[in-house]
C-alpha cells in the first residue's frame, strides 16, 4: 500500500510540475486596414483622407503610391494624421494610393482599398465679360486657363448678355459641348463630367450659383461655377477646372484657399 501511495504522489507531482511549465503565448495582432479612403483632386496635388483606426496601440499610418494599379508601390510618408496632401505631382497623370496602419510594436496592417486620382489645373475668381461690353475678354480657354477674345481660335466658351431679357448666356464654340449641371454649393460638388445631356443648341443660360460642364472638341472635360453676376457692368465671375488627361472625366476641385 505504501508503494502505491508513493507512486501516486510522484505521478501527481509530475503532473503539477508539467502544468506549471506550460506557457501560453498571447499574440499581438496587427491593426486593421484603414477604411473610408477617398481623395480630392487638386492642381499638381492630391489630398487623401481616411478614417481613424480604433486600436489603442496605433502608432502611425503609411501612405503608398504608384502610377499603376499593380506593381511596386513606394512609401510616400509616415503620418499620425488621417489625411495627407501629396504635392509636386504632374497634372494629367493618374496616381494610385493605399494606406496601411502600424502599431507600437511595428505590426503593420493589410493594405486599405486602392484609390486613384488625376491632378488637373484649376482657378478661382476669374472675371469674364459680355461680348458686347469687352469682346477681347469675353471668352475662356480652359487648356490655358486664360480669358481670351470671343472669336479666338482657342476659345472654348464665350459669354453674351441679352439686355432685352436681362440674361447672360454661355455659348460653346464650334466642336465644344456644354450643359448646365444646376445649382451647387461649391464647384467640387461636381466630381465627374457626365456622359450625356449636352445642349443641342450649344448655349445655356447663366445663373448665379450654377456649375456648367464643358466637353471640348479634342475630348477634354472642363467645368466652371458662376458665383457672381454684374449685369450693369457686363461681367460675371467664375471658378474653373480642366482635365488635361484626354477622355478623363475626373474634375473634382478643392475649395478656395
Give the topology.
Blueprint lengths: L1 H20 L16 E5 L2 E5 L8 E9 L7 E6 L3 E5 L7 E9 L11 E3 L4 E8 L9 E3 L4 E3 L8 E6 L4 E6 L4 E7 L19 E3 L4 E6 L5 E10 L4 E8 L15
Antiparallel strand pairs: 1-2, 2-5, 3-4, 3-6, 6-7, 8-17, 9-10, 9-11, 11-12, 12-14, 13-15, 15-16, 16-17
Q: If you average the pLDDT, what whole number results?
A: 89
The largest β sheet comes out as: 5 strands, antiparallel
Q: Catalogue the unreliable spans.
A: 1-7, 253-257
* Shape call: elongated
Structure description:
The chain has one helix at about 1-20; strands at about 40, 45-50, 60-65, 75-80, 85, 95-105, 115, 120-130, 140, 145-150, 155-160, 165-170, 175-185, 205, 210-215, 220-230, 235-240. By secondary structure, the chain is mainly beta. It has 2 domains: about 40-115, Immunoglobulins (Immunoglobulin-like, Sandwich); about 120-240. It has a 5-stranded antiparallel sheet, with no helix packed on it. It has a 5-stranded antiparallel sheet with strand order 10-9-11-12-14, with no helix packed on it. It has a 4-stranded antiparallel sheet with strand order 4-3-6-7, with no helix packed on it. β15 and β16 (about 220-230) form a beta hairpin. The N and C termini lie far apart (about 95 Å).
